[in-house]
Amino acid sequence: xxxxxxxxxxxxxxxxxxxxxxxxxxxxxxxxxxxxxxxxxxxxxxxxxxxxxxxxxxxxxxxxxxxxxxxxxxxxxxxxxxxxxxxxxxxxxxxxxxxxxxxxxxxxxxxxxxxxxxxxxxxxxxxxxxxxxxxxxxxxxxxxxxxxxxxxxx
Length: 154
Known about the structure:
This protein is an alpha+beta fold. The protein has two domains: 3-80, RimP-like superfamily, N-terminal (GMP Synthetase, Chain A, domain 3), CATH 3.30.300.70; 91-150, SH3 type barrels. It has three helices and eight strands. Strands 7-6-5-4-8 form a five-stranded antiparallel β-sheet. It has a three-stranded mixed β-sheet with strand order 1-2-3. Helix 1 (3-20) crosses helix 2 (51-68).
Protein backbone atom coordinates (compact mmCIF):
# COMPACT_ATOMS: atom_id res chain seq x y z
CA UNK A 1 0.00 0.00 0.00
CA UNK A 2 1.77 3.16 -1.15
CA UNK A 3 1.22 6.71 -0.58
CA UNK A 4 -2.19 7.49 -2.11
CA UNK A 5 -3.91 4.31 -0.86
CA UNK A 6 -2.15 4.60 2.49
CA UNK A 7 -3.17 8.24 2.91
CA UNK A 8 -6.82 7.33 2.27
CA UNK A 9 -6.61 4.49 4.80
CA UNK A 10 -5.03 6.83 7.35
CA UNK A 11 -7.76 9.45 6.74
CA UNK A 12 -10.42 6.84 7.43
CA UNK A 13 -8.60 5.84 10.66
CA UNK A 14 -8.14 9.36 12.00
CA UNK A 15 -11.36 11.04 10.88
CA UNK A 16 -13.55 9.45 13.62
CA UNK A 17 -10.85 10.03 16.24
CA UNK A 18 -10.53 13.75 15.48
CA UNK A 19 -14.28 14.30 14.98
CA UNK A 20 -14.94 12.49 18.27
CA UNK A 21 -12.83 15.11 20.01
CA UNK A 22 -14.94 17.91 18.49
CA UNK A 23 -12.31 18.88 15.95
CA UNK A 24 -11.86 18.74 12.20
CA UNK A 25 -9.21 16.77 10.32
CA UNK A 26 -8.23 19.53 7.88
CA UNK A 27 -5.52 17.65 6.05
CA UNK A 28 -3.16 14.72 6.29
CA UNK A 29 0.26 14.34 4.68
CA UNK A 30 2.56 11.38 4.49
CA UNK A 31 5.80 12.31 2.80
CA UNK A 32 9.52 11.89 2.76
CA UNK A 33 11.46 14.87 4.09
CA UNK A 34 15.12 15.48 4.89
CA UNK A 35 14.89 13.65 8.24
CA UNK A 36 12.87 10.71 6.89
CA UNK A 37 9.17 9.95 6.52
CA UNK A 38 6.66 12.22 8.26
CA UNK A 39 2.97 11.60 8.92
CA UNK A 40 1.45 15.02 9.57
CA UNK A 41 -2.12 15.63 10.73
CA UNK A 42 -3.59 19.12 10.58
CA UNK A 43 -6.50 19.66 12.97
CA UNK A 44 -8.73 22.63 13.69
CA UNK A 45 -11.78 23.66 15.70
CA UNK A 46 -13.76 26.87 16.14
CA UNK A 47 -11.53 29.30 18.00
CA UNK A 48 -8.41 27.38 16.99
CA UNK A 49 -6.55 24.44 18.45
CA UNK A 50 -4.26 24.54 21.45
CA UNK A 51 -1.01 22.75 22.12
CA UNK A 52 -2.96 20.49 24.51
CA UNK A 53 -5.38 19.60 21.67
CA UNK A 54 -2.46 18.65 19.42
CA UNK A 55 -0.84 16.61 22.17
CA UNK A 56 -4.09 14.75 22.95
CA UNK A 57 -4.70 13.88 19.29
CA UNK A 58 -1.05 12.90 18.85
CA UNK A 59 -1.22 10.47 21.77
CA UNK A 60 -4.49 8.93 20.58
CA UNK A 61 -3.31 8.75 16.97
CA UNK A 62 -0.06 7.13 18.12
CA UNK A 63 -2.01 4.49 20.06
CA UNK A 64 -4.23 3.84 17.03
CA UNK A 65 -1.18 3.50 14.78
CA UNK A 66 0.38 1.02 17.23
CA UNK A 67 -2.75 -1.16 17.04
CA UNK A 68 -3.47 -0.87 13.30
CA UNK A 69 0.21 -0.78 12.22
CA UNK A 70 -0.49 0.47 8.65
CA UNK A 71 3.02 1.82 7.96
CA UNK A 72 5.81 -0.70 7.48
CA UNK A 73 8.82 1.60 7.92
CA UNK A 74 10.03 4.29 10.34
CA UNK A 75 8.26 7.67 10.36
CA UNK A 76 7.57 10.59 12.67
CA UNK A 77 4.04 11.59 13.66
CA UNK A 78 3.26 15.31 13.88
CA UNK A 79 -0.05 16.96 14.78
CA UNK A 80 -0.54 20.67 14.32
CA UNK A 81 -2.86 23.50 13.46
CA UNK A 82 -3.26 24.31 9.77
CA UNK A 83 -2.20 27.88 10.60
CA UNK A 84 -3.77 31.22 9.83
CA UNK A 85 -3.45 30.55 6.10
CA UNK A 86 -5.22 27.21 6.34
CA UNK A 87 -6.13 25.38 3.14
CA UNK A 88 -9.73 25.24 1.97
CA UNK A 89 -10.25 21.64 0.91
CA UNK A 90 -14.01 21.07 0.89
CA UNK A 91 -17.16 22.92 -0.09
CA UNK A 92 -17.95 23.12 3.63
CA UNK A 93 -14.62 24.93 4.17
CA UNK A 94 -15.66 27.56 1.63
CA UNK A 95 -19.07 28.04 3.26
CA UNK A 96 -17.54 28.27 6.74
CA UNK A 97 -15.12 31.01 5.72
CA UNK A 98 -17.46 33.39 3.87
CA UNK A 99 -16.27 36.97 4.21
CA UNK A 100 -12.63 35.98 4.66
CA UNK A 101 -9.79 36.85 2.30
CA UNK A 102 -8.72 33.90 0.14
CA UNK A 103 -6.15 32.95 -2.49
CA UNK A 104 -7.43 30.54 -5.14
CA UNK A 105 -5.52 28.85 -7.97
CA UNK A 106 -7.55 27.22 -10.72
CA UNK A 107 -6.89 24.28 -13.00
CA UNK A 108 -7.79 26.30 -16.11
CA UNK A 109 -7.89 30.07 -16.75
CA UNK A 110 -11.08 31.88 -15.80
CA UNK A 111 -11.47 35.32 -17.32
CA UNK A 112 -7.88 34.99 -18.50
CA UNK A 113 -6.25 34.19 -15.18
CA UNK A 114 -5.60 31.27 -12.86
CA UNK A 115 -4.82 33.08 -9.59
CA UNK A 116 -7.37 35.05 -7.62
CA UNK A 117 -6.99 36.93 -4.35
CA UNK A 118 -9.97 38.59 -2.74
CA UNK A 119 -12.84 38.19 -0.33
CA UNK A 120 -15.01 35.10 -0.46
CA UNK A 121 -18.46 36.66 -0.78
CA UNK A 122 -20.58 33.59 -1.52
CA UNK A 123 -20.47 29.90 -2.19
CA UNK A 124 -23.55 28.64 -3.98
CA UNK A 125 -24.35 26.06 -6.64
CA UNK A 126 -20.77 24.76 -6.56
CA UNK A 127 -19.18 28.15 -7.26
CA UNK A 128 -17.12 30.53 -5.13
CA UNK A 129 -17.74 34.24 -5.63
CA UNK A 130 -14.48 36.10 -5.03
CA UNK A 131 -14.41 39.89 -4.87
CA UNK A 132 -11.07 41.51 -5.72
CA UNK A 133 -9.91 44.76 -4.11
CA UNK A 134 -11.05 46.69 -7.20
CA UNK A 135 -14.61 45.57 -6.42
CA UNK A 136 -14.89 43.19 -9.40
CA UNK A 137 -16.17 39.69 -8.68
CA UNK A 138 -15.47 36.40 -10.37
CA UNK A 139 -17.30 33.09 -10.04
CA UNK A 140 -14.92 30.16 -9.70
CA UNK A 141 -16.39 26.67 -10.07
CA UNK A 142 -15.36 24.42 -7.19
CA UNK A 143 -14.49 21.67 -9.67
CA UNK A 144 -11.88 23.99 -11.25
CA UNK A 145 -10.10 24.87 -7.98
CA UNK A 146 -6.60 23.39 -7.83
CA UNK A 147 -5.63 24.97 -4.50
CA UNK A 148 -7.23 27.43 -2.10
CA UNK A 149 -6.06 29.00 1.16
CA UNK A 150 -7.13 31.67 3.58
CA UNK A 151 -4.99 34.79 3.31
CA UNK A 152 -3.59 36.30 6.48
CA UNK A 153 -5.23 39.70 6.88
CA UNK A 154 -3.01 42.37 8.39
